[in-house]
Design goal:
- The protein is built from eight helices and 14 strands.
- With 466 residues, the chain is α+β, with helices and mostly antiparallel strands.
- It folds into two domains: 337 residues, Outer membrane efflux proteins (OEP), CATH 1.20.1600; 38 residues, no CATH class.
- The longest helix is centred in the middle third of the chain and has 67 residues.
- InterPro entries: OMP_efflux (IPR003423), TolC-like (IPR051906).
Length: 466
């Protein structure tokens, strides 16, 4: 007879532990959905993915010209006020032969300085230069022409980083599902253990009633009653332990799902219909997000080598400026009031850095080799983990089948022992022992079922199917 035929109909199926009146019927799929929706790690992974996407778009912008506007305004009380004194200036006359202007010299003085035939009178002049109120505005455009592959490498790195962030989302999701399954099946396990404890108590209570009635009419000894009472006390303790375990496992499941710890949880009526797929021993670990992340990290290091090399290659760029300046008055007349346009090209060629570039590239290549070795090492560990998960699934399936058969045999043994005890052929100790064997077989059946379901979850994670 299957386990669900042993459990009384409807017993504790609607069990709720906690002070809150809120109750939720929780299937495994619903628990997973709530955990993925409310888990902080999932939210962090999502924001990390958003950040990586924004970073990729930012690096993509480096392919296009950068345009900026600038403006300056000068306010100051400083200025220039100066008076030029009156003076006599020498004159020049044209040379008939060449047409060039030559000094109009009359003779040379005793001191060796020339004396001109004529002088021009320069009157006294006051100068006033005003700086305040000068302003300028302009537009600048900068466009890299050749950067040694720096822009392309940086953009490729940002794309790989975006892919890693997406894979990290998948990894976080798988980890959350594993934690949710562990919490869910632990809650199922403790719920079934409580049902077992209550069923055992019912069996022992019925036995105590029969033995007590027989002892009152002299058919049984007081010693038999005391032995059954000891077992009944043990059953009461197991019920209390199961109740406490059930309450703690319910609270832990609520915590994993991100809901109130006081929320009552109602389990579905049966867990025997939980589907299991077929084990595929030909599948590998390459679908796991952990492996894909390692593979992307190797590619990231490849781009890092190219980025390092670009730092020591020629850099070529152009810059264009268009501006307007206004201000700077002299004696009330504005000196500056015009626009200007300029274009500038720049070329930078590294010539000699005493081996800096060569050694930096070598260091980047060493990092790439290290990452490849780490990927290979972790790949072997994932292969071992997958093999272990396959073996555990196979073992737990066999264990579940064997414990189910053992439970049927233990139940049949208990019934035979009960009949023999009632017939006076078997002692009360033998009958109590058959009950203990039945209880232990039921407990092993529950634990085996829990392990089978958890091992299936671990297998799915090891194959990258979660």
């Amino acid at each position: 007879m299957k386990l669900r035929h042993i459990i009384w109909s409807g017993l504790i199926c609607m069990l709720t532990i906690g002070t809150s009146n809120a109750q939720e019927i929780m299937t495994l799929e619903k628990c997973r959905e709530l955990a993925l929706e409310n888990n902080t790690s999932a939210a962090i992974a999502k924001r990390s993915k958003d950040k990586a996407e924004y970073t990729k778009q930012a690096y993509r912008a480096n392919y296009f010209p950068k345009i900026s506007a600038s403006g300056n305004y000068l306010y100051t009380n400083a200025g220039l006020n100066k008076s030029l004194p009156a003076s006599y200036l020498p004159t020049f006359v044209p040379d008939p032969a060449t047409g060039e202007l030559i000094p109009n010299i009359l003779t040379m003085g005793a001191d060796g300085n020339p004396i001109f035939k004529e002088y021009a009178y320069f009157p006294e002049m006051d100068l006033s230069l005003k700086l305040s109120g000068t302003w300028m505005a302009g537009l600048r455009a900068e466009q890299p022409i050749y950067t040694g592959g720096k822009i392309t490498s940086a953009y490729n790195m940002s794309k790989i980083g975006n892919e890693i962030a997406g894979l990290n989302q998948d990894l976080t999701r798988a980890d959350i599902i594993v934690k949710t399954d562990e919490a869910y099946w632990t809650f199922v396990q403790t719920n079934e253990l409580l049902k077992l404890a209550l069923s055992y108590q019912k069996v022992v209570t019925e036995l105590l009633r029969n033995v007590t009635d027989a002892q009152e009419v002299g058919l049984k000894h007081k010693n038999d009653v005391l032995k059954v009472q000891v077992k009944l006390n043990e059953a009461a303790l197991r019920i209390r332990q199961a109740e406490n375990g059930l309450n703690l496992s319910r609270m832990n499941l609520c915590h994993v799902m991100g809901i109130s710890l006081a929320t009552g949880i109602i389990l579905p009526e049966s867990f025997d219909d939980h589907p299991f797929g077929n084990l595929d021993r030909t599948i590998d670990y390459s679908h796991r997000p952990e492996y894909a992340i390692l593979d992307r990290q190797v590619k990231l290091k490849e781009q890092q080598v190219k980025l390092t090399q670009s730092e020591f290659l020629p850099q070529i760029g152009i810059m264009a400026n268009y501006g307007y300046i206004n201000g700077l008055e002299m004696n009330g007349n504005k000196l500056l009031d015009r626009t200007s346009f300029s274009v500038m090209a720049s070329v930078s060629i590294p010539l000699f850095q005493w081996g800096e570039g060569r050694n930096k590239v070598r260091a980047a290549k060493a990092e790439h080799d290290i990452m490849q070795l780490q990927r290979d090492e972790v790949s072997e560990m994932m292969e071992l983990e997958l093999t272990k998960a396959l073996d555990k699934c196979d073992e737990s399936a066999l264990e579940a089948a064997l414990t189910a058969h053992s439970l049927q045999q233990a139940e049949e043994n208990m019934k035979v022992s009960e009949d023999m005890y009632n017939a006076g052929i078997e002692t009360i100790a033998d009958y109590l022992e058959s009950q203990t064997v039945w209880q232990r077989a039921w407990m092993e059946y529950i634990n085996a079922g829990t392990r089978q379901r958890l091992n299936w979850t671990y297998y799915q994670k090891a194959t990258g199917k979660l």
